[in-house]
Amino acid sequence: AQKVTQAQTEISVVEKEDVTLDCVYETRDTTYYLFWYKQPPSGELVFLIRRNSFDEQNEISGRYSWNFQKSTSSFNFTITASQVVDSAVYFCALSELNNAGNMLTFGGGTRLMVKP
Amino acid sequence: SQTIHQWPATLVQPVGSPLSLECTVEGTSNPNLYWYRQAAGRGLQLLFYSVGIGQISSEVPQNLSASRPQDRQFILSSKKLLLSDSGFYLCAWSVGDSNQPQHFGDGTRLSIL
């Protein structure tokens, strides 16, 4: 069965620091998809990125970057020059190919607090 | 573009009262629909999902139920609320294959007194 582990339950940084959120997954499928979501204090989950298992290119979007390493089953998320608005809970999730209903397996989340 | 509406935003209910939370999606057809619950400071728990009208799958046995009377409408109900039903309830939708993300509503904060 699939599993997603976010070992860091809470991280606190000072504004402008870089921070990396870890995500480790387990799956028996060779084709799968990984996602990151952001949950700000208002509560809604915001989709950030999707990565296919056959595409190991890292991705950068502004201050956000994602490092996908199949060899270590990790999909880590780095925020460069963090800002107070980055304070949120971040969830990593996994979807296996052909699962009925597009089910996602979520990690437990990492609460990021960015202090001014 | 697709949008998802969830209401009410907050709700305070006494123990033993009924519950009805509604979620509707606009701008897409035959979406997969989901209800999640999030306890304070905790992760997401999938409660129900639906791949079509009248098709409901339950992930966790409890006193909650779900219905999908229309293609883009998903309702979460209870006949008698328990204290343990308190939490943040999120509705989500997705379309297409398993490579597509789920998109979430703004959530309902439910407090049971």
Overview of the molecule:
The complex is a heterodimer of chains A (about 120) and B (about 110). By secondary structure, chain A is mostly beta strands. Chain A has no helices and twelve strands. The relative contact order of chain A is 0.34. Chain B has about 110 residues and is mostly beta strands. Chain B has strands spanning about 5, 10-15, 20-25, 30-40, 45-50, 55-60, 65-70, 75-80, 85-95, 105, 110. In chain B, β7 and β8 form a beta hairpin. The N and C termini of chain B lie far apart (about 40 Å). At the A-B interface, β5, β6 and β10 of A face β5, β9 and β10 of B.
Mean pLDDT of chain A: 93
- What is the average of the pLDDT values of chain B? 93
| Percent helix of chain B | under 10%
- By DSSP (H or I, 4+ residues per run), the number of helices of chain A equals 0
Strand content of chain B: over 45%
The helix-strand sequence of chain A is EEEEEEEEEEEE
Structural class of chain A: mainly beta
Structural class by SSE content of chain B: mainly beta
Q: Tally the beta strands of chain A.
A: 12
Q: What is the rounded Rg of chain A?
A: 14 Å
List segments of chain A where confidence is low: pLDDT < 50 over at least 5 consecutive residues.
Answer: none
Euclidean distance between termini CA atoms of chain A: 41 Å
- Global Rg of chain B: 13 Å
What is the helix/strand order of chain B? EEEEEEEEEEE
* Largest binding interface between chains: A-B, 27 and 28 residues
- Largest β-sheet summary of chain B: 7 strands, mixed
DSSP summary: helix tally of chain B: 0
**Main beta sheet of chain A: strand number and arrangement?**
6 strands, mixed
